[in-house]
Amino acid sequence: MESDPDTQSAAAVLPVLTEQPAPGTAEGPLQVRNLEAEDIDFVARMLVEAFRDKFEFAVGKSRIEAAIQQQASSLSRSPNIWHRYYVALYEGKLAGAMCIVFYGDSADEGSQCCDSQLGYYGSTRLWCVHCCLDNSDMRRGECYIDRICVDAGYRGKGIGKAMLDKAESEAREHGSTLMSLWVKQTNRAVHLYERQGYNISMNCCWPCTWFAVGNARWYQMEKQL
């Protein structure tokens, strides 16, 4: 799932306005690396703030901080999945986050959605989204971009593209031949994905996700490597 720049709060993946050197190169200010323990609070906040409109619909404004704490707690308890999480740094400052999943990976313990702090309805709604947009039917050789988001203060600096490039590089190294993701149909990030070589492979309407997060229409997008 991707961040939604239509109503996005603190984070969004927007069309890239400028090109930057490849992540991690000495010439440029951009780096993309694996999650480390000190990044957890930033990543947890990003994963909620980037989808704030959806979380507010699901759990209510009063439980946003609880949702952030739940994300941080889940990540802290699951160091075995940190190698699938990445952070982007711009001039040394945390600017984005991404999670990818490969075919055959074990369940993402960090994505638990049932939590007493979120309330019964909030937990149920997040569970509905998890069921519809999960990666349980991944195909052999597939790499799924579970979440990707860029801090609002760093839009237009090529960070979204850099993280997509990193995901594809990791996928090739892993032997994957297909990239996939889900995106809200009205999200402007669709154009970024198309420029990156992704095509719409499925047009879905799920009433259950409207009940959960206020949106029923999604694209599945894919790219052959």
UniProtKB/TrEMBL annotation:
PROSITE patterns: GNAT. The lineage of its organism: Eukaryota, Metazoa, Chordata, Cephalochordata, Leptocardii. It comes from Branchiostoma lanceolatum (Common lancelet). InterPro entries: Acyl_CoA_acyltransferase, GNAT_dom, YpeA/RimI_acetyltransf. It holds the Pfam family Acetyltransf_1. Residues 30-225 form the N-acetyltransferase domain. This is Hypp750 protein. GO terms for molecular function: acyltransferase activity, transferring groups other than amino-acyl groups. Keywords: Acyltransferase, Transferase. The keyword Flavoprotein does not apply. It comes from the Eukaryota. CDD domains: NAT_SF.
